[in-house]
């Protein structure tokens, strides 16, 4: 569900409070999102414009966003033309879903000129377009060449043609309703969802005028769940049921930040998912073959028996034959012996002995390979679970882990300060009301750093038993039961057992842990531990101040 014209109408006054604002930095945070760092009457602010087909919006945000190392072409154009310039005004086109930022700057020769940044928030047609003072398109996030749309070309050098206005009434000025037509067909700015909410209210006796007055006076965003999908608007959603309200932009952040965060991770770190899935598929296909070879190797004595019989019966002329039947001396049963038709009897006997020796020696090798393969499967299943729950920083650390393990090649990047080996990754930490701190890792590198470098030997360590998940450390040598259960809840929630009940969580002193020689990051051995069973509960963790995503 995206913004409609009326929600944009409510957002524009809030954006105007930051103007005039100097554009200090411009970042591309995904293929469809641009982040502007501004400085104006409210101090430093961040403005985000999204052209996502479903989540397109414009808002002020205090969130932290990842930025790609290499910005796209359009971002480089924006930096060239408007970084350091000043946004002086913002106008919405009636109640349509697009608005214009007027930007004042000095050109190459020092003359003052005005440029226009048009944000069009129209579903799959959402776009951001930079236009010159003579109405020529400088560039756009999504270019539309003439052969795709001859009536409205969006391409550098083309004349900018505004989206034509809709011939609809302004619902804040004209309250007359035609009962034979839908509200979306009569009034500008109405989405189908807002129309259904207004029609429901009117069926309950509320007037259309009072609905519009309530919209005009609202400064909140109301969010509800309808058919397992979030719906929202700036008035209480009486047609849906239970609502939660937030300040307008905060509500947008809650709605969209984590939805798009997963897409940002996939865009910027999509090759990490690809490598993990590829390696996991390879190991899962490899394991049955190894198990089959191991079964064959267990039957190696059969080939020694074949060689013994061929020598004992002095079988010589076997060329051209694919098998021979000989009687076993001990059992008296007939034994069919496979032959190589190109070899004589003694050469076939020697070949049987060679295969026996190879299979006997291969038993140990295959057992080792099966163990390695199973460990690899477990390792990549854990990484996949971590990626599904990861934020951008965690996904980047998983990439680093794969590079160190030789599964990926390191990308060539612009020169940046290289991390020292002594630099430890940041882990999550919460301090409970009793003053005890609990820390946990979100990937293998964080788990290793927490367990072996940050935790003290007398502190308490926890991990969900038989599940991939976070290492958790209670920074106390003698935690009370409530603290222990909270930490166990964290371990269960940040594991593959999140959706299970009665998850077993092992706990012990850090001093009871041992590193496994040659093991993957995040693997430990417990020498002495206890187990607690816990039902993962996100509401209890939220009350404790745990950041769940």
In short:
The chain has helices at residues 5-16, 73-82, 183-186, 192-203, 208-217, 248-298, 301-312, 345-389, 392-404, 444-454, 481-493, 538-543, and strands spanning 21-30, 33-40, 43-50, 57-60, 86-92, 98-106, 112-120, 127-131, 137-140, 220-226, 229-233, 244-247, 323-327, 334-338, 428-431, 437-440, 460-464, 472-474, 503-509, 513-515, 524-526, 530-534. It has 549 residues and is of the alpha+beta class. The model is unreliable at 414-418 (pLDDT under 50).
Write the layout of secondary structure elements.
Layout (H helix, E strand, L loop, with lengths): L4 H12 L4 E10 L2 E8 L2 E8 L6 E4 L12 H10 L3 E7 L5 E9 L5 E9 L6 E5 L5 E4 L42 H4 L5 H12 L4 H10 L2 E7 L2 E5 L10 E4 H51 L2 H12 L10 E5 L6 E5 L6 H45 L2 H13 L23 E4 L5 E4 L3 H11 L5 E5 L7 E3 L6 H13 L9 E7 L3 E3 L8 E3 L3 E5 L3 H6 L6
Antiparallel strand pairs: 1-2, 1-5, 2-3, 3-4, 5-6, 6-7, 7-8, 8-9, 10-11, 10-12, 13-14, 15-16, 16-18, 17-18, 17-19, 19-22, 20-21
Walkthrough of the structure:
With 549 residues, this protein is an alpha+beta fold. The protein is built from twelve helices and 22 strands. The protein has a nine-stranded antiparallel beta sheet, with helices on both faces. Strands 15-16-18-17-19-22 form a six-stranded antiparallel beta sheet, with helices on both faces. Strand 7 (112-120) and strand 8 (127-131) form a beta hairpin. Mean pLDDT is 88; it is low at 414-418.
